[in-house]
Amino acid sequence: GAEEPGMEAEAQELPLGCGGEGGSPAAGRSPEGDERRDPSQASVSNGGEAESGKELVELKVIWNKNKYDVKFCLDSTGAELKQKIHSLTGLPPAMQKVMFKGLLPEEKTLREIKVTNGAKIMVVGSTINDVLAVNTPKEAAQQEVKAEENKKEPLCRQKQHRKVLDKGKPDDVMPSVKGERLPTVPLSGMYNKSGGKVRLTFKLEQDQLWIGTKERTEKLPMGSIKNVVSEPIEGHEDYHMMAFQLGPTEASYYWVYWVPTQYVDAIKDTVLGKWQYF
């Protein structure tokens, strides 16, 4: 057994490139070892094959301006090489594009695609962290989308409205009954966004909407109101929360809570001028 030291040295080198096949401690044992241990016999013969059949090839793996010198089994497949590249670069095989005279086939061995010593293997791909770093702007965009979605959340669940609605229904709220004509008397018993009492008076002859609070009455020309939005109050569907848009943006909404449902359409039609053509 004079050549044994050589065997051991080679068996030791194998794990570098061959993923440890044949590199088990048993591989270095002499064949005259314990006959009864079949597993060790098997690994001894593997070790033998590793020496004779498994040539190592030296590769230069180049990824992102980094160069790696790698010894790898000629009879390993492209897929196994990708695993090796993963261990070197942290780049998951699924994210790797490995090039050797074109795209490296995963199922073929390096011998089959005629990889020789000193061959350059180019790797293209980004690690998860690189991808995340690039995608941060996208995350900002997603947050904007979320903000949009939050707007779509029922208005009565949004914080600014909750604080008024949580006060409950005003004692003197007008009864909600079916029918949709404008009330001839001022519509009272509602709250504005600060939770103060508010009443609405429709002065059709002056084409004005009067919004009255304890402090003062705003007299708004109907034509100055850009939009009217409303949504039923959850759990009290016979009442709505309604906003009159007094300026160019949503920031100018004047919110009124607890508008009896039967008046909602008539208010919108009156304010937005549906009837003026008749």
TrEMBL record:
Region (Disordered): 1-51
Stated name of the protein: UBFD1 protein
Classification via CDD domains: Ubl_UBFD1
Any one GO molecular function term: RNA binding
Acidic residues: compositionally biased ranges: 1-11
Stretches assigned to the Ubiquitin-like domain: 57-124
UniProt source species: Pedionomus torquatus
Taxonomic lineage of the native organism: Eukaryota, Metazoa, Chordata, Craniata, Vertebrata
